Amino acid sequence: MKPPKFSAKSIRFGYDDKLLFDGFGFDLYPTDRLLIKGRNGIGKSTLLKILCRLLQAEINLFLDGNPVRDFRAFKHKIAYLPDDPPLYEELTGNDNIRFCACLWDLIRDREYLNRVSELCEMLGLAHDLSKPVVQYSLGMKHKLFFAIMMARRPEITFLDEPFSAFDEQSRQKGIELLLHSASEGRPVVFVSHDQDLQERFATRILRLPDEHPISDAIEEGNHV
């Protein structure tokens, strides 16, 4: 049995005097495609943000068996794709790519920039990169941010409602890319209401209970 790629332990988080998570934790294995399930409002998207350190919580994180203490370095190793892509709409697609590359210290990384271009081509976005993002459809925005983030080859990818705005052809190509990522030992964690995606893509399910605070969850499926 391979050791976990990532572990989250003793998660404690709440707001407005309401405790959502109290001692919750789980392990993520190298080839996992982990679906987080639960009723609406239980905290699935909140959990993703906690795991990515976008919300401050009491938590112990481990990557490759080592405690995560440098959260800035940790964020450089993962990717978080929310359901609302954080792009600058007044900038062009190319300018957003360059801006994000600067944020990740990748502006001089020719390999990264080439991968972004290849992914944009794969997703049918290459001819729109000179346009301001304000002119993009929601699907185009999702494709651009997907290309920007996945070109980094993150060690773990966290996605909230992936491919909900993709056309079918781009959806299939995006799924294939995530399948390849997990097969290389770079696991995927996602939240989705798409029943087809749940059934076809997930190898494990982390099912959150219906009541707060959450201290445990039901795990379904086996890691490889």
UniProtKB/TrEMBL annotation:
Residues 6-222 form the ABC transporter domain. PROSITE patterns: ABC_TRANSPORTER_2. It holds the Pfam family ABC_tran. Keywords: ATP-binding, Nucleotide-binding, Transport. One of its GO terms (molecular function) is ATP binding. SUPFAM superfamilies: P-loop containing nucleoside triphosphate hydrolases. InterPro entries: AAA+_ATPase, ABC_transporter-like_ATP-bd, ABC_Transporter_VariousFunc, P-loop_NTPase. This is ABC transporter domain-containing protein. It comes from Candidatus Reconcilbacillus cellulovorans.
